[in-house]
Amino acid sequence: MLHQIMIFKKTRSQNKDQHFTDVLGLPCIENLVCSADETPEPIATTITGNIPSWIKGNFLRNGPGKFEIGRSSFNHWFDGMALMHQFHIEDGKVTYMSRFLNSDCYKENLEHNRIMVSEFGTIAMPDPCKNFFQRFLSRFELPKPSDNANVSFVQYKGDYYVSTETNFMHKIDPQTLETKEKVDWSKFVAVNGATAHPHVDPDGTTYNMGNSYTRKGAFYNIIMVPSKKVNPNDTLEGATVVCSIPSEDKSKPSYYHSFAMSENYVVFIEQPIKMDLLKIVTSKLRGKGINEGVYWDPKRNTVFHVINKHTGKLSLIKYYAKPLSTFHQINCYEENGFLIIDMCCSDDGQAINNYLIQNLKKSGNALDEVYNTVCRVFPRRFVLPLNMDSHTPCGQNLNTRLNNTATAIKTDKNKVFCTHEDLHGDDLHEFGGLEFPHINYSMCNSCPYRYFYGCGFRHLVGDSLIKMDLQGKQIKVWKHAGMYPSEPIFVSSPGAVEEDDGAILSVVITPNQDKSTFLLVLDAKTFEELGRAEVPINIPYGFHGTFQNRH
């Protein structure tokens, strides 16, 4: 089947507030959340077209792959047991393998043939083998953090780990996908978890964020992990907390999935998706999932906290914006005294609780209704002025950059209210907005850039691939009915000079065709298909991945 490639130019932007849809007739995608078997030995794929011979390495993907344990089922998409995937690419050929993460919760669940460890949206019920009094007492135990690291592959000190948002990661052998070592963040720094989206400086120093909970309330912590090992078996040794930011609401900190970083600053976006710590701590007692303690509070503005990552000093200036939700930032860089932050945003933060497995398995009008109640996500730019003092006037736009519609207005001492510029035209609405953004990270992270890539969301999961050219806000689109591509990963060609000289890798799932999943390779410049590697098995839709270059 031929793919489609479409090129669009920017048109006048639509209204900036609230992007809900009235789409009808969405195809059922329930097979995207069906449990799969692991494939622990590499199998051959069928190549169509041409896989460039210069691509040499492992495309690693992570996501949920097992949604039932015995007779018990997980409730939320985020809960499924982690299934790791590897596409090994060399000499124009591709092999595929997968393994379940051998986490403690996976082993415990299988041993007892039921869900033993609570996840984000699923509460582990008391052991039926215990007597009534023991079952009653077990409800008063604090929910233990899961080590089901099903979100992403990340790197620290040259080693690969799979990560989620608790305090546990697992070191993985990227060649075999074997689970090597469980690592606990809290053994190295005083945090109760860390994001699955760290940022890396050119020298390999890695930054992340994690929460801590004290008698003084909740704190957001910027963490730095050094680039090199002192000993061969080191994991997170040498990790330090660079800065601790108190939550504006001590008992209800904001949920965050990632953060932004430029050459000299870390930017934490405190959004009004709140976590009710009392509800979360008592979730087992109440028989409710942790997700029921996460809620959207549109009465609160969004706050940008700017931290100098070299000194650990938190800027006295607080930058505010209207209530918004963001899961993934695109890029962040400094230019002429401004901090430019590009990110995927929504005007409503309730989507996280729409991704129940029962919703993903719906069809017909019920499926359309779920999709149409999820606010669309679009790329936006915020411009934060860094050089302010007591003489800076109030009430006027401090963003003096040319050809930019974002505003930054000083409203009070050390307070600036910001509005965004849309990084798209009306054409992006046709494709349901954009999420899972990716850039040429090694060349462009923390620098001015021109291109980013992402998934269009004209369904509850990505159903197209999009390349955005910020010069003119033009898009190129790869889309085909019944095909659901994963987050696009950019792989730079050897000796590349131009930003988009390389390839895009994406795993395309076909829920309504049996065993026809394929690895898609696009020319990043033209966005045309170069080749695909068909895998003769079914794979669930995953979350994030990375490319391990073996040159």
UniProtKB/TrEMBL annotation:
Any one cellular-component term (Gene Ontology): mitochondrion
Molecular function (Gene Ontology), one example: metal ion binding
Keywords: Iron, Metal-binding
Positions of Fe cation binding: 197, 257, 328, 544
GO annotation, biological process: carotene catabolic process; retinal metabolic process
Keyword field contains Metal-binding: yes
Cofactor(s) needed: Fe(2+)
Cofactor mode of binding and number, as noted: Binds 1 Fe(2+) ion per subunit.
Pfam families to which the protein is assigned, alphabetical: RPE65
InterPro entries reported in the protein's UniProt record: Carotenoid_Oase (IPR004294), Quinoprotein_ADH-like_sf (IPR011047)
Family listed: Belongs to the carotenoid oxygenase family.
Protein name as annotated: Beta,beta-carotene 9',10'-oxygenase-like
Species per Swiss-Prot/TrEMBL record: Sinocyclocheilus grahami
Taxonomy of the source species: Eukaryota, Metazoa, Chordata, Craniata, Vertebrata
